[in-house]
Structure of S8 family serine peptidase:
Amino acid sequence: MKLRRSTVLLKAALLAGIALPGTAFAAPAITPPTPSAAVPPALTLLDLDLLGADTSAAPADPSRTIRPYYGNINAFYGTINAFYGNINAFYGNINAFYGNINAFYGNINAFYGNINAFWGDINSVYGNMAAFADGTATIDGYAKPQWTAMAGFWGGLTNQWVALDSQWSAAAGTQDYGAVAGGLRGLVDTSRNFWGAAVQSRTGKSFDDGFANPLFARFGIDPNDPNSLASLDAATRQRFYISWYDQLMNYAGADHVDWWMKAVNWSPALTTTLGSAKRATIGLLDFSITGNATLSDNVSKFGGVSTFSNGHGTAVAGLMVAPIDGTGVMGIAPNATVVAYNPFDASGTSNWDDITKGVLMLSKSGAGIVNMSLGIPGWTFNPGWNQVFTNSDVKKVAQNTVFVIAAGNSGVSQTENVKWDFDKNPEFLLVGSVDPNGTISNFSNRPGTACLIDKSSKCVAGNELMNRFIVAPGELLLVADDSGGITRMSGTSFAAPLVSGTIALMQGRWPWLVNYPAETVSIVLKSAKDLGAPGVDPVYGVGELDVTAALSPLDPTKLVWYAPGPLGSMVPTTAKMLQTTGSAAKWEANGVYVTLFEKIGNTQRDFAVPLSSRLYGQSVTSADGSKQMLMSYLTGRALGWLGQGGASGFASFAERTAPVGVSGDVEVTTAMAPRAPVYGFRDGRMPYQTSVRVAAADGKAGFRMGVGDGAVALGQRQGLAMISDYDVDAGGANPLLGMASGGAYATADARLSPTIRVSAGYTDRNRQRDTRTLGMRELTLLGGTRDAASAQHVSIEYRPASALTLTAAMTHLAEDNAVLGVRSLDPNDFAKGSASDGVTMGADIALGHGLGLAVSATRARTRDRGGADRNLSLSGNGLTTSAYEVAVSAANLFDRRDSIRFAVSQPMYVEAGRFDFSSVEVIDRDTGEIGVVSRSFAPPREARMFVGEMLYGRSFNGGMGEIQLFGRAQLRPSAAAQGTPALMAGTRVSFGF
């Protein structure tokens, strides 16, 4: 009996809906054609259509010409090789099917972001998974596997399947399927061992009764009857294995992971960071959403010609808004609102009048995006769309709506131009389909050389359809069905909602983009990954959708940071971040972020970049009171570009001293030592530091001046005479002196009595950016700022016994445009700098036999020196810091030519204090209005860091040579030392001639 087209279309799925059998527990099987497939005994109308039933007859209503794009079914499925690529190319090797298995599931951090950020605390979501196999690891009564364990399982099982499938193919020639049946039972045994407990917990049945046997029955397989295996051709076998995978993943206790996620650079953590696009509204022009209560809850308004559904609308909606709730599929924008309109009657077709009504209803309902998987077969973009958009009622309400249109499944390239009213018609995107390898799908329509033309009938460069054409995954996507389960479908219908969901994320993060559809379309197109011929081309258009790129700055070099100026003004500058002369990570702000802006057409986007890694993925309250997720996914794109500077040297025994001579009662001594280099800065042209000391011969007074490590000279400690002792990041002996060390210094001392000596001195640092070691990019970022500070130091030394010296000192540190080494490239930050006053107490003890012990403790307070219109400053009483160090040294350890030293220090640690930070942010997230916002934050409260250091030196060749060994270890390293090795060691050998 020949079926009429109107009957066949009763179950047609718009633009794509080719479904895979056996992937939904409750859905009827849908069997796509294969070269050798026989018509199954029980056929749905859709089955007949896909199997080649005559569909040439016109629908009952000739006006209803808008219908599904099945194209030529063979062009979609081709031969078995075209459907699966090459069978091996679809599954991989395993790498191609699962991504790379590590990249598909992660590594866990890579796929799920940080698994803690997406799933919360892994223990609270999955329980403790160590004992999954025996069912003891459960949550809500269900066993939950580890993702890493699942990755290993699927890797092993797929290898097992590849061997079995090859054996199955060979058996077709001998009709002896006994060994194949045994291998299939082995597949069941492997799966049962891993998933049996989960199936038992969920279904109350054994693995075989609750899972394996029902799936075997669906494919006509009886593992105990080898002859039943003869009816499965290569394509059916592959569909069986996909179904095995999909259905077992229902017991994972988590949403299904699918290949398209990695392909478009999307992860659940990304959506979570953005707050799930809570404000966006998506219009769905499609069949009715049925059979899935969760998806139906997202629909705030519905209209249409009928309520007829075939599951297609449900599948499309799921890719956009399915919740991340631990079951089923995941949608890109799960909290977006959906308004829906069904333009199809019971024949499964529509006309332009009903399409117009649907567009009007959805636009009036506030949809910022309308997803449309429909059109005229044989066209990528039919001229009928011009009729819809030029409708006078539509023009009034649709100007701020972006229309996402599936390109169709005829496998054609459009050559015919389309007249277009550029002044009145809204913005739109055409979406084609690619396979897991990023190759255009055989069935996908393409933009070709067609052009949108104005009244002059001329094609202006840039108006070609390819400039509005983007591709996205559209083959074998896992989607929600209309029975509460899952299935796999192919077609441009399922590529389009990935683009619509991405726009929903954009409009959720930047709600004012709803009023800027041209800018929205531009962002999606410019962020696409180029495929095919370089640049825009007639096959792939602009390339493949990249979700993360669309939500990131298109060009980080053009980001702008608005500096609060006088009288509340806002001055745009290049993007800036805090720089530090030491470890930049140590001064991460624990409650503040920098807002960077990107100009896009007539509007701009803001990017909240955390100053603290501990803020990643966390929400903050914006100036308008709304909760905003910090955009931690920008780490590699924005923070990496912003860069950081600063380094510190390592101490050594390399100083060389020599007497100049004695003149009367005066002794003159000079000294020279290598200068510790600091990346990005230069202290002078000479690679050495020098000093001259003039002292009374009786030792009652002396004066020293020089250029270099002034901290050591002013400290005048026998046991703490290394530059590393004064390093703010590694030493604990008065780091205030260390921050002003490196330039000119002078110090004078006098003995007041046999037991008391006093000294006073000055040291400064005035380092300039080093254009010789910095590249152009770094110079652009770091500019011409200098590292300038000075310190005055007064100490009193008391020696109650020959073996004991006690020291008390006061240090005043003045920093230009910096606070304890933290500085900004913006002169308004820390304007006029800061002042620190510290007290240091110490002791040096000679223990005899060449042993010495030195201890030091410093307590300091840092205050802001003030200045108008500052962006970043200290609040209240400023910062209170502490540092201390203990060092043990031994001379003549093995003979009279060596020495060794051990030191343990707590580098500078902020005990208390707060910062005030003023920045320009979006203060109205509906309109995008910006303004100056001030907030207060405290430096990070972390575990104290301790540094252990060892240094051994030995001279040889009569003192003409020296060998030095050194090592450093960070004890209990914290986030304050990120990027610094926990262990470090080295050696140095020098020769004299």
